[in-house]
Specification:
The chain is mainly α. It has one domain. The chain contains seven helices and two strands; from the N terminus they run ααβααβααα. Strands 1-2 form a two-stranded parallel ribbon. α2 crosses α4, α2 packs across α6 and α4 packs parallel to α5. The termini are far apart.
Length: 156
C-alpha cells in the first residue's frame, strides 16, 4: 500500500499545534476509550485533550487523519473509528471516509450503506485490536487480520 506523503506533512494550526504534536496524546486517549468500548464525539475528544479554540474540531480531525495514516502504514485497524459525529447518528464525519479512501481502504459513499458497514467492521476490529489485550500485538494475532478474525469470532 502506498501512503500519501501529504498526509504525513506537518500542518500547523493557529494555536501552534501540529497534527504530529496532538496525535500521540490522541492515540493514548483513544486507547483508553477503546477499553470502554464506547464511541466518543469529536467535541468530547477536543475537551479531553484540552484543545482551545479556534478550530478545535479541525485540530482533532487533522490529528485523527494523521493517526489513520500511521495505522494504514502498519496495517492496523483505524483507531480513529471510535470517534463519531453526533450529527451523523453514530458515524464518523465524512472526512474519515475520505481519508480511508485516500489510504485505499474505503470505496463507497460516505453517507451510504457501505459507510455503515465499513465503519462497523473497522470499529469492531479497532476495539478488538486496542482493547482486548491492552496493547497491540500482545494477543499473538497479526495486527489487522488477527483483529478482524477475533472480532468475527466474538460476534458468532
Amino acid at each position: 500500500m502506498t501512503v500519501i506523503a501529504a498526509d504525513l506533512a506537518t500542518t500547523t494550526n493557529v494555536e501552534g499545534n501540529t497534527a504530529q504534536m496532538i496525535a500521540p496524546r490522541l492515540r493514548e486517549h483513544l486507547r483508553t476509550v477503546a477499553e470502554q468500548r464506547l464511541p466518543v464525539t469529536y467535541q468530547e475528544v477536543a475537551e479531553a485533550l484540552g484543545l482551545t479554540p479556534p478550530n478545535t474540531i479541525h485540530q482533532v480531525t487533522e490529528a485523527l487523519e494523521h493517526l489513520m495514516t500511521e495505522d494504514a502504514a502498519t496495517d492496523r485497524p483505524f483507531i480513529a473509528a471510535i470517534v463519531i459525529s453526533k450529527a451523523r447518528g453514530g458515524l464518523p464525519a465524512p472526512g474519515f471516509f475520505d481519508c480511508a479512501a485516500r489510504l485505499g481502504r474505503f470505496d463507497g459513499d460516505a453517507a451510504g450503506p457501505e459507510a455503515w458497514a465499513f465503519h462497523a467492521t473497522e470499529l469492531n476490529a479497532m476495539v478488538t485490536f486496542w482493547a482486548a489485550s491492552g496493547s497491540p500485538g500482545e494477543s499473538g494475532l497479526n495486527d489487522r487480520q488477527g483483529a478482524r478474525q477475533a472480532s468475527r469470532s466474538i460476534s458468532e
